[in-house]
Write a structure and sequence with these properties.
The structure is a single chain. By secondary structure, this protein is mainly α. Among the domains are: 143 residues, no CATH class; 164 residues, no CATH class. The protein is 68% helix and 0% strand. It is built from 26 helices and no strands. It is elongated.
């Protein structure tokens, strides 16, 4: 047959695939012509393939399968940097359709072709979810002996790049990975654990098997691989001591000279905190690296760390350090200085989650900075004014937000403290009212936190308490005899406040005249510095 215009699509693709395998990548014009013909074949058009038959002498050769043909074609297009969607999408779609109607079981070679075609497409930014699902299903029917290790590498690459985190899909491939774990390379094993880590589903057998294999290559761990392994273990709650020893040793070796970000240091410490696996060598190395990353390079430093994203990364570092109980003064100073620069240089719109996280961590670490304290309080106050947003917050988040109301208040004059008190009273009232309206019982831990916050916020002098606090009932947050005793004094203060409500002098004292917060902050910082 000299022209294959009426031949079946698989046969035409076979001709084009074998032709492309003989065509040099530098022949751009012919490659473009073949690409147009491939698209025409997939659209069902009549295509003249006489030149391809004659040039490559492939007309009489054996017909290769659709998968092999498209694997060869996609490889040629990938090597030629072809990125047009109207070229890639039809090919992947056709392969997906062909893979679902194949009458005979998929062979190992067929799986390789399907995976390679998808890898080629993915590297140019194209993926077909139906094809990927069919590939996973087909691979799960094969025995481990019939699946090449290279195909498992390709499969993990595709799944990782696509971001597949569905447990059902991963568990179809789990038997293959378990049986071939000892043959997989380091990067593939780390990627597999990363996939399971994103599901946050524990799998002790898989992690234990991987751990035993990984320990044999511990000296080859890269820093990103160490961080990925820690994150995966933390997300799944998998604790493997010997593997951690290997990871920590590599981090201590690599981190001092590594080109990393604040986010990476935070990820290391945050994972250790989640796993409760403290290693002071690692923490010290991370702290020293943070010092390098956060210290200003000079007096005229433009300071690149001024965005909301930087503030989030710093907050994760502070949270991890507060959980681990690790205090490195210079690092904490630099973290707080970065927070101060972020707040001072931008009008950042901080949500309640970030404000609560920062406030709670700063309080646990015993850090005091008037500028940071005021901005965090202002962020919490703005969020509290948006009742619709606050109603969606949990008690734990609101209680953490209370930290912003008594962090460093001693550095401020009385008129500023009243603003902190008002916000705190508003939060406590909201929590109590919500439980009262819903008919729910507040957790003992929440009560204890509220009680501690009120003790820190409400002064013992009634004349210094905001009027809104008179409506509070300390008994509502008492959970023990000890708290009963301390709440008695608070109750006396609030009762005295009620008696003073009608006195104009007290009202004038509580509702002080407007003030300049910038001037107050300057004076507070100067007072602390001296």
């Amino acid at each position: 047959m000299s022209a294959l215009t009426t031949s079946p699509v698989p046969q035409q693709l076979s001709v084009l695939g074998r032709y492309l395998s003989r065509l040099g990548a530098a022949d751009v014009e012919r490659l473009q012509e073949v690409t147009r013909k491939v698209c025409g074949v997939l659209r069902g058009e009549e295509v003249d393939l006489r030149k391809e038959e004659e040039t490559a002498a492939v007309g009489e050769g054996p017909t290769i399968g659709t998968g092999k043909a498209l694997s060869t074609i996609t490889a040629a297009l990938h090597n030629a940097d072809v990125t047009e969607a109207d070229v890639w999408a039809p090919m992947l779609s056709h392969l997906a359709d062909a893979s679902t109607i194949i009458p005979e079981p998929l062979t190992s070679e067929g799986l390789s072709d399907m995976l390679q075609a998808q890898k080629n497409g993915l590297q140019r930014g194209f993926v077909n979810t139906e094809l990927l699902a069919a590939t996973v299903d087909a691979a799960s029917t094969l025995s481990p002996e019939d699946v090449a290790v290279q195909d498992l590498h390709t499969m993990v690459f595709v799944l990782s790049r696509v971001g597949v985190v569905e447990v059902e899909i991963l568990y179809k491939l789990r038997p293959l990975w378990l049986s071939k774990m000892a043959e997989l390379d380091l990067g593939t094993i780390v990627a597999i654990l990363g996939l399971f880590g994103h599901t946050k589903v524990p799998d002790h057998e898989l992690f234990l098997t991987a751990s035993e294999v990984l320990q044999l290559s511990a000296d080859n761990f890269t820093l990103p691989q160490c961080i990925s392994l820690l994150r995966s273990c933390a997300r799944c709650g998998e604790f493997h001591v010997r593997l951690f020893h290997c990871i920590f040793a590599r981090i201590v070796t690599l981190l001092p000279t590594a080109d990393v970000t604040v986010q990476a240091c935070g990820a290391i410490m945050d994972s250790m905190a989640a796993l409760r696996a403290r290693d002071d060598r690692v923490l010290l190395a991370a702290a020293m690296k943070l010092n390098q990353l956060l210290e200003p390079e000079g007096t005229d430093d433009p300071d690149a760390t001024r965005t909301l994203l930087d503030l989030q990364h710093v907050s994760f570092c502070l949270r991890a350090l507060s959980k681990l109980g690790f205090v490195q003064p210079s690092t904490l100073h630099n973290l707080m200085a970065t927070c101060r620069r972020c707040f001072s240089s931008n009008m950042l719109e901080i949500n309640l989650d970030l404000a609560s996280l920062l406030s709670h961590s700063i309080n646990r670490l015993g850090l005091y900075d008037p500028v940071v304290a005021w901005h965090l309080h202002s962020a919490v106050r703005r969020c509290m004014d948006r009742l619709a947003t606050v109603q969606d917050q949990t008690d734990a988040r609101l209680v953490a937000a209370l930290s912003a109301c008594y962090n460093c208040t001693s550095a401020f004059p009385e008129e500023v403290e009243h603003h902190f008190q008002s916000t705190a009273v508003k939060i406590v009232k909201l929590i109590l009212q919500r439980h009262r309206e819903n008919g729910t019982e507040m957790k003992s831990r929440t009560k204890a936190s509220l009680h501690t916050a009120l003790l820190a916020i409400i002064p013992t002098d009634p004349s210094r308490v905001v009027l809104e606090a008179a409506e509070l009932d300390p008994q509502a947050v008492v959970t023990s005899a000890v708290e009963e005793s301390s709440s008695g004094l608070m109750k006396e203060v609030l009762q005295a406040l009620k008696g003073l409500q009608d006195e104009l002098a007290v009202q004038e004292e509580v509702h002080a005249a407007p003030f300049s917060i910038d001037l107050v902050l300057q004076e507070s910082v100067a007072a602390i510095s001296s």
